[in-house]
Design goal:
With 472 residues, the chain is an alpha+beta fold. It has five helices and 32 strands. Among the domains are: 100 residues, Coagulation Factor XIII, Chain A, domain 1 (Distorted Sandwich); 185 residues, Glucose Permease (Domain IIA) (Distorted Sandwich), CATH 2.70.70. The strands form eight sheets. Strands 20, 23, 25, 26, 27, 29, 31 and 32 form an eight-stranded antiparallel beta sheet that branches. Strand 14 and strand 15 form a beta hairpin. The protein binds zinc ion.
Length: 472
């Protein structure tokens, strides 16, 4: 081999070696600098008696192999949870920290997350916390003191609960699965809260009523509300569905419906699905409420109007001599002349003004503390969302939009979206005895026009207005 060629080979070989060394060194350097496991979720700010949370971790390369969660409090480190063996690249670890059982004390602490991956690095890293979070340990549950409550309640009726709570972040009053928000009420230094509660028309008297509180740390407390549930009977009615009614209403309420579909099938979609949608909307609208009472004194009904259907009437729908459906009617049907003025039943703020499935053109007025009134089947409306209205102010005209036979007002009273009988709120004496009285017993400011009077006999269920000739 000539001298020049041999030199060339050597140069190439050395160059190759150099490249290999440089490559290996930078490769090893890269492996060393790959970051370790990272926390991708933030733990809660508070730990209570028992606090569940999920810790999410991610390894940049390789898998998470070891995780330890510690709480460090005045120099003492307590292991709260530990997991080993390859856990995957991204892991979600559900944890339940039982602070009391672990011997943690109330006060400030640091929650540390220690974690390691199985990615090979030339120099093994020392174990260290990958994240530290300042936390507060709170082991004291909220304290609830019942001040007063409406004593006599009925299915389809309203009640008031007044209480004091300390150390709580959230407090509500529950009636079985139904939950009613509570509102700070009266002088601030008393720390009192009130909640209006509604019992649905089919309320089971065995279902407990309870004030429920929880704090930031998840510590919970509950207190039962004693009440005497007095039964209430609701009427029944049969409604005959005629073809002319279906021809008029089905296309209006189901514009997308295929023309080939039989009208009674369309009616059932309206009476079931659209009715359920409206119920859901009522619950949602119920959350838009003022944190203080806006109403004053008894609620009013349109002048010269007659009752054509009652609250919680169980309706059987008959078509061509056959029962096709059953539904409950959640309001009062009031009628006088066509397109007659609809007054606001009390002072409040308009929170809904648009078509609402079977209800047609609808207005909902909020009266505060979750109490609202609903006006349906309107031919026209004179208010918009956000308008403040006075008691008796004309807000709309009656009509027959939605699932209505003939011109009338469908009127409902709602508490946090749950329909209750309007009878109670039309009755000044009922309001004084069932809303004013517990406020007075609790030593809280009374609502204008609803002051409880002394020495009145025990409350009786208000009389039901006489039902007029049939129609709806
Ligand atoms: Zn109605």
């Amino acid at each position: 081999m000539p001298q020049r060629s041999r030199t060339k080979v050597w140069v190439l070989f050395v160059l190759f070696l150099l490249l290999a060394v440089v490559g290996s060194v930078s490769y090893l350097g890269w492996r060393q600098t790959v970051p370790g496991v990272q926390a991708v979720s933030t733990p809660p700010r508070f730990l209570g008696q028992k606090t569940p949370f999920t810790l999410s971790l991610e390894a940049r390369r390789g898998n998470v192999t070891r995780v330890e969660v510690r709480v460090v409090q005045s120099g003492t480190s307590t292991t709260v949870a530990k997991q080993e063996s390859p856990l995957g690249r991204r892991v979600e670890i559900p944890l339940v920290v039982e602070s009391g059982a672990l011997g943690l004390r109330e006060g400030n602490a640091t929650l540390e997350v220690w974690a390691r991956d199985d990615f090979w690095r030339p120099l093994r890293r020392a174990d260290r916390a990958i994240a530290g979070y300042p936390i507060t340990i709170d082991l004291t549950p909220p304290k609830i003191e019942l001040l007063a409550a409406t004593r006599y309640l009925s299915p389809g009726g309203t009640g008031l609960v007044a209480f004091r709570v300390t150390g709580a972040a959230r407090t509500d009053v529950s009636a079985g699965p139904l939950v009613f928000p509570s509102f700070a009420y009266g002088p601030e230094d008393r720390g009192a809260r009130v909640a209006l509660i509604a019992l649905p028309w089919d309320f089971d008297p065995a279902v407990p009523l309870a004030i429920r509180s929880s704090d930031e740390a998840g510590n919970a407390a509950a207190r039962g509300v004693p009440a005497e549930i007095r039964p209430r009977k609701f009427p029944r009615d049969t409604i005959e569905i005629k073809d002319a009614f279906l021809q008029a209403k089905v296309p209006e309420l189901l514009p997308q419906r295929p023309a080939s579909e039989p009208l009674p099938d369309g009616f059932l979609i309206i009476n079931r699905d659209l009715r359920r949608q409206a119920e859901e909307t009522k619950r949602k609208v119920g959350a838009s409420t003022a944190n203080k009472p806006l109403w004053q004194g008894p609620f009013i009904q349109p002048r010269n109007s007659k009752v054509f259907a009652n609250f919680a009437e169980l309706r059987t729908y008959v078509y061509a001599g056959r029962e096709i459906d059953r539904q409950v009617h959640f309001g009062y049907d009031l009628a006088s002349t066509r397109q007659s003025p609809v007054p606001a039943a009390n002072k409040g703020v308009v929170v809904f003004a648009e078509p609402l499935t079977i209800y047609g053109n609808t207005v909902v007025i909020d009266h505060g503390l979750g109490l609202q009134t609903l006006y349906a089947h309107l031919s026209s409306t004179a208010v918009k969302v956000g308008d403040a209205v006075e008691k008796g102010q004309e807000i709309a005209r009656t009509g027959s939009t939605g699932l209505a036979i003939g011109d009338h007002l469908h009127y409902e009273v709602l508490v946090n979206g749950v329909s209750v009988t309007p009878l109670e709120w039309w009755d000044g004496k009922w309001i004084r005895d069932h809303i004013g009285k517990p406020l007075k017993e609790a030593g809280l400011p009374e609502i204008a026009g609803a002051e409880a009077r002394d020495g009145e006999p025990a409350p009786a269920t208000p009389a039901r207005p006489q039902r007029s000739r049939r129609a709806r």
